[in-house]
Write a structure and sequence with these properties.
Radius of gyration: 55 Å
Helix content: 40-55%
Number of strands: 12
Largest sheet: 6 strands, antiparallel
Distance between the termini: 165 Å
Strand content: 15-25%
Low-confidence stretches: 29-35, 320-333
């Protein structure tokens, strides 16, 4: 009877041991499966740096697309290093199921010694909400001084004695020439800016007949006759002649009617009698066209233009007289 009980206990013990082994194996397989679904790797761009030199620490995470990876956030320090900057890597795809993302840290320190970048735990969630975790390996770094270990530390050195600069005649001559050129250039610019530039520009005096010729030329380029704008043409021709007479003989030609204007010219005796008759006939002819709806023929229109030009030619002031009396150039006769 005791023998049967012992065998039963032995069977139960073996069964429990077998279940425990199965549980361990299943856990290891599950852990290996989790590791296959989530892997991490770390790297640094330098393993030995000097004080103040920066290094980049990178964490790369390979994971299954069904997992939701929780990336680490920004921290102020990492294993004795100050974190100066932080960023995330662009996601990469490997096959249908695997993805890779990561983070990088820009680190520096100002203390000499050996450093260990500690482990970082990366967490991820599967579709069922189960947390899967992996840990990054530690990384060893060495920070060395910028001064060599065998360098001799000396006290503050004394001031060196002044160095004699050898006298060079060519250099002195060249400096003097350049200084003279600079002074001359600055003097010329100053003279032009403060004196020449501010001088009053000479005023070009346009004589009455010159202005009349210019206006006749401008009227001819308008093509009013070809366009059928006869009244406008006659208005411009009349205004040109009146302006010439006003400037040439100091008359108020533009402010007077034709009758007043002709009477004033005759009264002042500024023109010969033949010019008075010519001027009277011309102005009355123009008034008929402008106000009485008279339609002149082509020959009359051309004669009007020629009459003004001939009148200006024969009554303009003698240019030789202008040169002989420059002090009276601004006066009208």
């Amino acid at each position: 009877m005791k023998r049967v009980k012992n065998r039963t206990r032995l069977v139960l013990a073996v069964f429990c041991l077998w279940c425990a082994c199965c549980a361990v194996v299943f856990a290891e397989e599950q852990q290996n499966a989790d590791k296959e679904m989530l892997r991490v790797s770390t790297s640094v761009d330098k393993s030995i740096i000097t004080i103040g030199e920066k290094i980049t620490y990178t964490v790369r995470i390979m994971y299954n697309k069904d997992l939701e990876v929780i990336l680490p956030e920004f921290v102020n320090s990492l294993g004795g290093f100050a974190v100066k900057d932080f960023g995330r890597l662009k996601e990469k795809k490997y096959g249908k199921d695997m993805r890779e993302i990561g983070v990088w840290y820009l680190l520096d320190t100002y203390l000499v010694g050996s450093y260990i970048i500690p482990e970082i735990t990366i967490n991820a969630k599967d579709a069922g909400g189960t947390i899967v975790s992996v840990t990054t390996p530690e990384i060893f770094l060495e920070v060395i001084s910028v001064v060599a270990e065998d360098a001799e530390f000396m006290d503050i050195r004394d001031i060196k004695t002044p160095r004699n600069i050898p006298f060079n005649k060519k250099t002195i001559v060249l400096i003097c020439i350049l200084a003279a050129l600079m002074i001359g250039t600055l003097s010329g610019i100053s003279y032009w800016y403060f004196i020449v530039r501010k001088r009053p520009k000479p005023i070009k005096i346009v004589l009455p007949h010159e202005a009349a010729y210019a206006e006749l030329g401008r009227i001819g380029t308008l093509g009013l006759v070809e366009k059928g704008a006869i009244k406008e043409y006659y208005f411009l021709i009349t205004a040109c002649l009146r302006k010439y007479l006003e400037d040439r003989f100091a008359l108020k030609a533009l402010e007077q009617t034709t009758e007043e204007f002709v009477e004033d010219i005759v009264k002042r005796r500024v023109l010969e009698d033949r010019y008075n008759e010519l001027l009277r006939d011309f102005l009355y002819h123009c008034d008929y066209v402008k106000f009485a709806k008279y339609d002149p023929v082509h020959e009359e229109i051309q004669k009007t233009f020629d009459t003004v030009k001939i009148f200006v030619d024969e009554t303009k002031k003698d240019e030789a007289q202008e040169e002989r009396a420059p002090e009276n150039a601004g006066e009208r006769t």
